[in-house]
Write a structure and sequence with these properties.
Keywords: ATP-binding, Kinase, Nucleotide-binding, Transferase
GO molecular function: ATP binding; kinase activity
InterPro entries: GHMP_kinase_C_dom, GHMP_kinase_C_sf, GHMP_kinase_N_dom, Glucuronokinase-like, Ribosomal_Su5_D2-typ_SF
Organism: Spirosoma validum
Number of strands: 10
Helix content: 40-55%
Domain GHMP kinase C-terminal: 247-309
Number of domains: 2
């Protein structure tokens, strides 16, 4: 039996990064890019490495570039961590797994280190394959928690729930991470939004080499935990952007959404350090008349465009700074 599962890239549209601060967000799945996992029964448990997991390099510069984009170990640790966390979940839930082994491998087309959640997509696809192989059902609201725990506890990756929620639910989802809700039920309130209500969206991302996730040093979390008024007020304002955006999408108010996307980034930039490279993406897109905000922690942006003429300007102008523009395929 050959099992093949898939998970897609994602883009935060509004409210990012308030998901890590009991806020609210709206995100979309980006089916232009995906990670797939293939699993089949075998005598021993075998994780098959991919070309990007190699320890053989053409030169020291090839090694340097590989480590810059993929880290020191490629994707194999993601599979190992997901398998371990799956086994621990089953044990904690007293789910008895049959005594059978498997071989597993992954592939991905998601651009690395540009804020489109390539690592978590591999983990989500792995969980889906394991659930199918062992015939285990994990409740949909719980699965994002397990994916986040895999990254945070096993691999030390700093992340929030938003990315994992949209990759597990897919489509377009409004997420409420209010502290009371999180503490009472162990997860947020997740409301799917009909993707046909979305306006014309574009995504642009850097095509030159990025840096490994989790390497951007901002002390916002520490300042928030200390109760700094500016950080708390800004995060609350960013969460309100998502709340207002939810209503604007339902009434298909494109003008309001355009302003909210810009406001999201403007608020973020008051408390986060924004690199010149990332800021240039925002400024170049806005110079074309489009709105622009980060899809994640940086490296890619999302926004609204008015018509094909504006989209063509985005293609041309962003290419000048080594960025590629796509129209996200949500469903």
């Amino acid at each position: 039996m050959l099992i093949e599962t898939r998970a897609y890239a994602r883009a935060g549209l509004l409210g990012n990064p308030s998901d890590g601060f009991f806020g609210k967000t709206i995100a979309i799945s980006v089916r232009n890019f995906g990670a797939s996992v293939t699993l089949y029964r075998s005598p021993e448990l075998h994780i098959e490495p991919q070309p990007q997991d190699t320890n053989v390099f053409r030169s020291l510069y090839h090694l340097r570039d590989s480590v810059s984009t993929l880290g020191y170990h490629g994707g194999v640790p993601l599979l190992k961590a997901a398998i371990k966390k799956f086994a621990e979940y089953c044990e904690a839930e007293q789910i008895r797994l049959p005594n059978k082994n498997f071989s597993i491998r992954y592939s991905t087309s998601i651009p690395r280190q540009v804020g489109l959640s390539g690592s978590s997509a591999i983990i989500v696809a792995t969980f889906r394959a394991l659930m199918q192989f062992y015939n285990v059902e994990i409740p949909q609201p719980i699965l994002p928690n397990l994916v986040l725990a895999t990254e945070a506890e096993e691999l030390g990756i700093t992340a929030g729930l938003q990315d994992r929620v949209i990759q597990c639910y897919e489509g377009c989802v409004y997420m409420n991470f209010d502290r009371t809700i999180m503490e009472s039920q162990g997860h947020g309130q997740y409301e799917p939004i009909e993707p046909r209500l979305l306006p014309k969206l574009y995504i642009a991302y850097n095509t030159d080499l990025g840096k490994q996730s989790g390497r951007v040093h901002n002390d916002v979390k520490g300042r928030w935990l200390k109760g700094e008024p500016l950080v708390i007020e800004t995060m609350n304002a960013i969460a309100n952007v998502a709340r207002e955006g939810h209503d604007a999408i339902l009434r298909q108010d494109t003008e309001a959404l355009n302003e909210l996307v810009n406001r999201n980034f403007n608020l973020r930039s008051t408390i986060y350090n924004i690199s010149d490279r990332n800021r240039s993406l925002i400024e170049k897109a806005r110079s074309c008349g489009a709105s622009a905000s980060f899809t994640g922690s940086g490296g890619s942006i999302i926004g609204l465009y008015r018509d094909d003429a504006m989209l063509n300007r985005l293609f041309v102008e962003l290419k000048k700074i080594n960025a590629r523009v796509i129209k996200p395929y949500v469903v």
